[in-house]
Amino acid sequence: MSSDSSLPTGTYHSSTRIHRRTVLRQIGLHGLAASMALPMLDAMRPALAAEASQKPVRLAWIFFPNGTNADRWAPKGTGSQWELSPTLEPLADCRNDFSVMKGLAQVNAQSLGDGPGDHARSAAAYLTGAHPFKTAGSKIRVGRSADQIAADSYGRQTRLASIELGTEEGRDAGSCDSGYACAYSNNISWRSETLPTGKEIQPKRAFDRLFGVAGGDDAKEQGLKSSILDFVADQRKHLANQVGAEDSRKLDEYFTSVRELEQRISRFATPIHLPEGTVAPSEKPSDVTEHIRLMYDLMVLAFQTDTTRIASFMLANEGSNRAFPMIEVKDGHHQLSHHENKQDNIEKIAKIDRYYCEQFAYFLKKMRETPDGDGNLLDHSLIVYGGAINDGNRHDHHDLPILLAGRGGRNLATGQILEYPKNTPLNNLFRMMLDSVGADRGDFGDSTGILSVS
User: Fold this and answer.
1) Which of 26, 18, 19, 20 is nearest to 1 (CA)?
2) Per the domain annotation, does 6 fall within a domain?
3) CA atoms within a 13 Å half-sphere pointing along the CA-CB vector of 422
């Protein structure tokens, strides 16, 4: 067991302190190393009170591609008096946990003289606030993304500075959109102006990264066979002797959720030994809904254990042509987004938009149901859900479909329509998020200031 402070032995009592960053660690057979951060426990509160009076804020950016059916997306009403639109109806139970942003634009996703390529530009500009240099070669250049700016300073306080997740493969080389390199379409997180951070699309690998599973090939094979809970069994038992009944219950719930997540992931894991000539299946789930929800669950777990406070998630690459047979949409998403005002295509786009909102509702409920200090994870988070295209047929980067969820640890007003002057920079919103964790640097893209969200 490892932490920034020692864990007392004996029976828990009110003066016992467990450090917030206590981690269960074990080196097992085959060189497999495993580590587990812990959820918030009552035994950590005295130490937390000594460290700070405010819970850490989590930042997350959820991105969807190809624009929306804008008429079905936009709710009617103003302020706190509004009605959920057909697309946002799946979020009814979370209505008071998010606000709808109107009037925001990402101007640097426009052509600005570079001709076609709006899909690539929208993903590249979305989180960087910068206009990408048009090239299909190696001289890619855009800007540092907001999540990585936050990771520079705020991310140093956790084991992982940030996590980047996705569901679709995507190469960085070659042209994917009208002379723009594929790196632009397939990434929203950029470590530097010329280097995308990359994203993990396989739940098993994301899980291993979160829990520090490391070692050689034998170790990884052993890891596929074993639960991480087995590797830290002794530390779990020792910890159980240090805490009270309520903390013991919290730990049981936490370890159960970890095991359930492992079991779901293991269904898609590559078999350890295959007959000669057999091609190993991908570790990426074939069920899109399960894939998305696994990634959302991993984000919740990462935030719950304070393994990281910064996350980005591409529900699909920009320009994705994924079909959605589970909702009776067999045409490709990108193809449909160029709907040419054909009603059948527009209705199918609305179905896809609603489907993605259903998955986002799943995530918000999980966040809300996860205790965190004197509230829950959603209380202590700022989560942006949206994209940098309004209508895929027009390739419009104005009045973007953007939701802001969570209260940012400061009783932020939610459950509203927040309407801003036309073409207010989306980057103003991202500066507000950076400012909430002390990472605002005074400028970002075409930002004109820090957005007011009250």
Assistant:
1) 26
2) no
3) 0
**pLDDT tens digits along 50-82:** 444 568 999 999 999 999 999 999 999 999 999
SS3 for 232? coil
What is the rounded end-to-end Cα distance, in angstroms, of the chain?
A: 43
Q: Please choose, from the candidates 168, 94, 177, the residue with its C-alpha nearest in 3D space to the C-alpha of residue 369.
A: 94
> Is 40 within the bounds of a domain?
no
At 243, is the pLDDT very low, low, confident or very high (cuts 50, 70, 90)? confident
Query: The tokens of 439 are what?
Result: 């990472």
For residue 11, being part of any structural domain is answered with no
Q: What is the CATH number of the domain that holds 91?
A: 3.40.720
Rounded to 5°, the CA angle 396-62-159 comes to: 145
Residue 262 covered by a domain? yes
Half-sphere exposure in the Cβ direction for 323 (13 Å, CA): 7
Contact between 187 and 123 (Cβ < 8 Å): yes
**Amino acid letter at 48?**
L
The Cα 91–Cα 84 span in angstroms is: 8
Rg of the chain on CA atoms, in Å: 22
Could you give the CA distance from residue 241 to residue 449 in angstroms, rounded to a whole number? 51
pTM over 0.85: no
Q: What tokens were used for 452?
A: 């007011």
Range of the domain at 194: 57-271+282-436
Q: What are phi and psi of 87, to 5 degrees?
A: -70, -35
Backbone angles phi, psi at 238, to 5 degrees: -65, -45
User: H-helix or E-strand containing 301?
Assistant: helix 288-304
278 φ, ψ (degrees, to nearest 5): -80, 135
Encode pLDDT of 141-164 as tens digits.
999 999 999 999 999 999 899 999
DSSP string, 15-64: T----TT-EEEEE-GGG-EEEEE----GGGHHHHHHH-SSPPPEEEEEE-
Q: How many folded domains does the chain comprise? A: 1
Residues 371, 351: Cα–Cα separation, whole Å:
33
